[in-house]
């Protein structure tokens, strides 16, 4: 939680992938705190539903279609947030996926390119489009979604995804250190297994096997990641810059 009461009230966050999973959970949490939340998703209906959920939680929601693999969509997304709310204080780059599970020799060009377009370009575009605005205002926090897979490499399951999340970590660190003295904080979160629709691409038994390797003996919940994102954006941890926060239930390194 923030140090300052009502810290998020009236402030604006843009969330990609807000239509489901961690993005949706985070949108609701910021709504609970009275924030303005621009819910962006490639599924426009889901984005609209997320915006309504923000309103119901106590915030002010708005929705926009955005394919994060297209820079033009991201430019429009940031522009829409500024036009409606005046300023973007926070950006949460939540959109991402492994697309499909694959062993190393099964990864073709199409899967590799789609994975990097979504996870890396999607994050890169969001950061590049919002940072000039944040520099102008002298304030901003960006939180990206990495993964513990970047440490383990995703052997026999999704090395393409693990590689892309390693790139997200590196991109986060590089940008964070460049702008750290200009009022902007950039961080990432690295969850292990989280029980969301992301897991729908798993082969039979894969989810249970992953949970069995977690010392806590359960998967994480989307709202647990959302609460962490809210904390990272708050004034309670202003010295946190460039780091990735591991959320693993005690494991996540295999």
What distinguishing features does this structure have?
254 residues; Rossmann fold; seven-stranded parallel beta sheet; 7 strands; 15% strand; globular
The biggest beta sheet, please? 7 strands, parallel
What is the topology, as strand order, of the major beta sheet? 3-2-1-4-5-6-7
Looking at the structure, what is the overall shape? globular
Number of domains: 1
CATH architecture: 3-Layer(aba) Sandwich
CATH homologous superfamily grouping = NAD(P)-binding Rossmann-like Domain
CATH class: Alpha Beta
The string of secondary-structure elements, in order, is EHEHEHEHEHHEHHE
Query: From the alpha-carbon coordinates, what is the Rg to the nearest angstrom?
Result: 17 Å
Instruction: Tell me the CATH topology.
Output: Rossmann fold
Gap from first CA to last CA = 31 Å
Name the beta content range: 15-25%
Question: Which spans of ≥5 residues are poorly predicted at pLDDT below 50?
Answer: none
Q: How many distinct beta strands?
A: 7
Secondary-structure-derived class:
alpha/beta
Task: Map the helices and strands.
Layout: E1 12-16, H1 21-32, E2 36-41, H2 44-57, E3 60-65, H3 71-85, E4 90-93, H4 109-137, E5 140-145, H5 149-152, H6 159-179, E6 184-191, H7 206-212, H8 222-233, E7 244-247
Parallel strand pairs: 1-2, 1-4, 2-3, 4-5, 5-6, 6-7
Helix pairs in contact: 1-2, 1-8, 3-4, 4-6
Question: What does the model show?
Answer:
By secondary structure, this protein is an alpha/beta fold. It has a single domain, classed as NAD(P)-binding Rossmann-like Domain (Rossmann fold), CATH 3.40.50.720. It has 8 helices and 7 strands; from the N terminus they run E-H-E-H-E-H-E-H-E-H-H-E-H-H-E. It has helices at residues 21-32, 44-57, 71-85, 109-137, 149-152, 159-179, 206-212, 222-233; strands spanning 12-16, 36-41, 60-65, 90-93, 140-145, 184-191, 244-247. Strands 3-2-1-4-5-6-7 form a 7-stranded parallel beta sheet, sandwiched between helices. Strand 1 (12-16), helix 1 and strand 2 (36-41) form a beta-alpha-beta unit. Helix 3 packs parallel to helix 4. The longest helix is centred in the middle third of the chain and has 29 residues, at 109-137. The radius of gyration is 17 Å and the shape is globular. The model has no long low-confidence stretch (mean pLDDT 94).
């Amino acid at each position: 939680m923030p140090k300052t009461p009502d810290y998020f009230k009236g402030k604006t966050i843009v969330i990609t992938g807000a239509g489901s999973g961690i993005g949706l959970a985070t949108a609701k949490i910021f709504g609970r705190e009275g924030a303005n939340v621009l819910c962006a998703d490639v599924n426009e209906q889901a984005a609209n539903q997320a915006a309504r959920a923000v309103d119901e939680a106590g915030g002010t929601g708005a929705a926009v279609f955005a394919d994060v693999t297209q820079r033009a969509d991201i430019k429009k997304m940031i522009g829409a947030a500024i036009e409606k709310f005046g300023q973007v204080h926070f950006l949460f780059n939540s959109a991402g996926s492994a697309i499909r599970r694959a062993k190393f020799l099964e990864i073709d060009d199409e899967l590799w390119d789609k994975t990097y377009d979504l996870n890396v370009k999607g994050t890169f575009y969001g950061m590049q489009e919002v940072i000039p605005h944040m520099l102008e205002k002298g304030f901003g926090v960006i939180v990206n979604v990495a993964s513990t897979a970047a440490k383990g490499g995703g052997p026999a399951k999704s090395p393409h995804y693990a590689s892309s999340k390693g790139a997200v970590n590196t991109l986060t660190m590089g940008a964070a250190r460049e702008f750290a003295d200009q009022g902007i904080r950039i961080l990432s979160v690295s969850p292990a297994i989280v029980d969301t629709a992301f897991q729908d691409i798993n082969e039979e038994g894969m989810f249970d096997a992953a949970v069995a390797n977690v010392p806590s003996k359960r998967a994480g919940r989307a709202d647990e990641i959302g609460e962490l994102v809210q904390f990272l954006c708050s004034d309670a941890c202003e010295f946190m810059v460039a780091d990735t926060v591991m959320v693993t239930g005690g494991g996540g390194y295999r």
